[in-house]
Amino acid sequence: MMPGTEQHYTGLTQHDDAALITCWKTIGVRGDMSCPKLLEYIRCLNCPVYAAAATRLLDRYALERESLPPPPEPAPDLATTRSVLVFRLQGEWLGLATRCLVEIAPMQPVHSLPHQRSRALQGVANVRGALVPCLSLVELLGIDAAANAAGPGRAMPRMLILAAPDSGAVVVPVDEVEGIHRFETARLEAGARAGGTRFTSSVLAYGERSLQVLDEQSLLHAVARSLA
Questions:
Q1: pTM above 0.85?
Q2: CA 185, 159, 224 angle in degrees (round to 5)?
Q3: CATH class of the domain comprising 78-227
Q4: What pLDDT, in 10s, does the model give residues 114-129?
Q5: Residues in domain CheW-like (predicted)?
Q6: Which long-range contacts does 144-147 make (Cβ < 8 Å, 24+ apart)?
Q7: What does the pLDDT look like over 157-184, one tens digit per residue?
């Protein structure tokens, strides 16, 4: 046996990964070909030492795969989901289809109008130099203003700019905007059987809350009537 050969085989029997990785590179066909087993197996690929190394590497790979975090959930199919803006008014959590949303803007001063006839119409707000009607969703939806449930301490009121097809853009103040979420269409349709007001298309369990998803067509028609 040539010098250094015994050291390599000793390493293999002790499951030394370094030896497993280097024996065929140092004394095998990719090395100086000094390994005596080459007389019997001709090529390292035929050697049981090489096969054992491959098995151990595969085992190690399998263990590493098991230790990896699970893959992320696949993105929802856009064709079977709807995009909904989730926001809070007083103690009610509401959802509105984003297709009627133009922008979420910071709160602006609302200037009252003289001789206004609609209780929902609060006045006008300046949106990029244009005066836009401002409506109270609390009044329009009939939400109890006394039942105010404060949100998180850092919640900031916002103004939603909506596109009303018959009256142009309108502004509605809200107490808090949580964000835009996608809900499965089947879930929204199933929630329609849960009841709600005439402006509610479905009611969903949303974490520990109850979320009323608004019927945007009914809402926007009511907006247009309030401005008439």
A1: no
A2: 70
A3: mainly beta
A4: 877 788 899 999 988 8
A5: 81-225
A6: 144/90, 144/91, 145/90, 147/90, 147/91
A7: 999 999 877 668 899 999 999 999 999 9
